[in-house]
Amino acid sequence: MSMKIEIEEHEELLRVTASGGFSIAGAFSRFLETLDAVERTGARKILVDGRTVSGNPDTIERFIYGEFAAKAVARYMMKGAARRMPQFAYVLHIPMRDPNRFGETVAVNRGMWIRVFGSVDEALEWLASP
């Protein structure tokens, strides 16, 4: 089953619910769809709930996705789509969520404002913090 997303707008929060089987190509496409919604809505905070995504990305896939997402956000910012960097909170279960946070680290090191969590409550708390 390929990855799918559903997007809901809640004022400044965009809630993206992902489901299906992980593939790097699918993850790229779904991330670009999410960025299109961010641009369209002006959302500053994005909650990506991927708790039902199945798969076990290997280290290189985590690196490639983190780099891809950060570069896509950088292009989004350079074209003037937003004044402030959007804040991304991902909620994932292991094995999609890497306990070592490798993909998160890759994206953060390339300028993306992102954090990965194990629960929606933790993610929403982080998104609500100033």
What class do helices, strands and sheet pairing give?
A: alpha/beta
CATH topology: Transcription Regulator spoIIAA
Average of per-residue pLDDT values: 95
Q: Architecture, CATH level 2?
A: 2-Layer Sandwich
Give a count of the beta strands, DSSP E runs of length 2 or more: 5
What summary fits the major beta sheet? 5 strands, mixed
Query: Which strand order spans the largest sheet, edge to edge or round the barrel?
Result: 1-2-3-4-5
Instruction: List low-pLDDT spans.
Output: none
Specify the overall morphology: globular
Percent helix: 40-55%
Number of domains: 1
CATH superfamily heading: STAS domain
Number of helices: 4
N-to-C order of helices and strands:
EEHEHEHEH
Radius of gyration, Cα only, in angstroms?
13 Å
Tell me the strand percentage band. 25-35%
Distance between the termini: 38 Å
> CATH first level: which class?
Alpha Beta
How is this structure best summarized?
With 130 residues, the protein is α/β, with parallel strands linked by helices. 42% of the residues lie in helices and 28% in strands.
